[in-house]
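Researcher: Before we compare anything, I want clean individual predictions. No alignment, no superposition, just each chain on its own. First chain goes here; please echo the sequence and then give the structure tokens.
Model: Echoing the first chain and its structure:
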Amino acid sequence: MLAYNADIQFPAASTIKVLILMSLYQAAERDPELLTRRVRLRADDMVGVTHFLVGARPGDAYSVRYLAEAMIVASDNTAANSLITLLGFSRIKASAYRAGLAHTQLKRHFLDYAAIVRHSENLTTPRDLGELLYAIERGSHEALRTVASPHSCRAMIDLMVRQEDRDKIARGLPRGVRIANKTGEVDFVRNDVAIVDPYGDEPYVLTVFTKQLSNYASGLGAIRAVARAVHGVVERGMDDC
């Protein structure tokens, strides 16, 4: 494992949606009808929508599965807030604890400015989310129960493969290399976490976090440079085997 500042906490931004997704699939294993249940959007959870929820209004109902898709594929914050409300902060916190994410906290809904003023931040570390992605990949790849069943792990990867933001880690990798990732952006922060080549024989996990950025282009360039360098090391290591 290669690591640098792996245990420093960073603002998680939308990368923490992977934790929400894991908690959701754990709950769905106990309640098989959960993913098909329809939930109504609350006005308090609506903070702007992506193409998944264009035209949505408070009271409109969507399946939990569709909200999970919107949350991961397009990083829809209204969908994420609806799932947080459905699951509850305590359940998501318990999921993080059981997964060993000792330095990860989800304390507020997305774009909850009142909570931000109270310094209720959503935080994580590169190691925490790296280990979470590793557990999801291992569960799918080796057909083991890790943080969820193999079926649930594969379903989570299938969603992250479709994630639409390919401007960070993906831009640093050779053309055609598939990733399952989740990006995150808030003021002064650009993050990305990924399973590289998730369906291949030798997948690996890469998490890159930034904070206190004064130049977003430099932050994006750094993420791409790290991805490029790490992939080169991994490929050389494979060639030596």
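Researcher: Okay. Second chain, same rules.
Model: Second chain and its structure:
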Amino acid sequence: MSTSFRDFEHAGWDDLGVVTSYHRHISELTTGCIAELLRLARLKPGERALDVACGAGYVAAAASKQGVETTGLDFSAAQVQLAEQTYPGVRFIEGDAEALPFPDRNFDVVFNAFGLPHVPHPDKVVAEAYRVLKPGGRFAYASWCKPTKCVAFSMVYDAIRTCGALDVGLPPGPNFFSYGDPKFATEMLGQAGFVDMTTSEVPLVWRVSSPDEIIDTILSSTVRAAAALRGQSAEALAAIKHYLRERIASFEKGGSYEVPAPALVVVACKLQ
């Protein structure tokens, strides 16, 4: 029996090695959008917030510092464990983003930072966020911008497409970059009933000391991209790494490398 996309993602993100490596090497990049995510969500002290696909708890912890009663939820036991260790004062639970274990109209804000590309049915995730929000509540998410802008991650698939094969037997999943397209976001959120959408592009940059730092991090700290790389032949993988080194080298600046990885922050409201 073939593995489902959900099982594939869950197995990858429940690997303590992957989770720890992401925490050490990629979280500095992704957490760069948190200030804008919280600003657009218009948090108020005393409100209740849910951080869906919370990972190691970065957004939940930041919201909690603003006097918001926050719960973080993730489908990975390894992520929940890391979140509890990293932010012991915040509540974290294991759960399914497509079937949230909370009653209707329970939260003022629902967050989702970089989690939508990792679920099989993002429309269900958005619908669940709508369900658990109170009238006037806000859904706020962050995701990578379209491929032409988010070079740090799109170049991996460019390299595979050019030097190897994209079809290496992985279960099909949603487009990794769709959620960073404002038009796509408008349609997705509108179908769930959300209104008054606001977007903001955060110009994140992945700064590294060598091209191989990005290549090694992709292999050790991601799930879908790492599996696509590991599925290549030895010859193709060598060619892919050469391609990536040349691409990353073009972003050299003062002895380091600064590769664009902008994210789109999106916030919308529930009226009823």
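Researcher: What stands out in the second chain?
Model: The domain at 5-269 is CATH 3.40.50.150 (Rossmann fold). Additionally, The CA atoms of residues 98 and 124 lie 5 Å apart.
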